[in-house]
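Hello,

I think I submitted the 6-chloroguanine job twice by accident. Can you confirm which output corresponds to this input? Input:
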Amino acid sequence: AQQRLDVVTIFPEYLAPLDLSLIGKARRDGLLDLHVHDLRDFTHDRHRTVDDSPYGGGAGMVMKPGPWAEALEHVVAQGSAGEAGGAATTGAGEPARVPTLIIPGPGGERFTQQVARELADEPWLAFACGRYEGIDERVYEWAGERMPVRVLSLGDYVLNGGEVAVLAMVEAVARLLPGVIGNAESLVEESHEDGLLEYPVYTKPAEWGGRHVPDVLLGGNHRAIAEWRHEQRVQRTAERRPDLLPPAAASTALVDLEER
Ligand code: 6GU
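Support: Only one job matched these inputs. Its output is below.
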């Protein structure tokens, strides 16, 4: 089942990396149907204006609602038109009438692996990249009356606009789509899939610059290797991301580490 993605931005060139690597391959293989739209194409003045000063005063500029509504109406019309092979479909095969709209922003709900999994189940996603101090609040209300809307943040820091966040979100979602990653097994043993960070990995040579690969990995005892790797995952998570562990498990793992 192909997933349709629409991205609306004032910097379409910012999305160029989506032609590369795994995502580019998924597009060429027909697993992803990606459309990037220039918000300025939905303005009508000579200067193709997308922003204006904030009512009430304050720093910076706010994105005007008009171009956003026209751009999103265009996305909905184009995506639900059912052009041959291009229409997003629901699980039952009928065309999806509207996309789930993602608005990236530092004030959103946290984008996590769980959210990526939810989005990978959707037939059609649209992304609205804000810039400047944000998008006029009425766009959120207007869109929310027409389609499901999620405001999503990558984490507690500020980017200049939604474009880089969309690159991250599209990559996290697309790699979960069936067929995008050749070896589906590599998807399950990953950080954030089961709540623990990954174990450390090594390759040849067995000794490098006086540093040795742990002995257990050189023997063929698969049970011992699995136990060692699990232990490494728990300790690593306790040290680097204790917030991922139940409080008791976090302190036990750190005590174990000090006793070694
Ligand atoms: Cl999703 N957008 C912007 N502009 N800044 C962010 C972010 C998103 N996530 C973290 N910082």
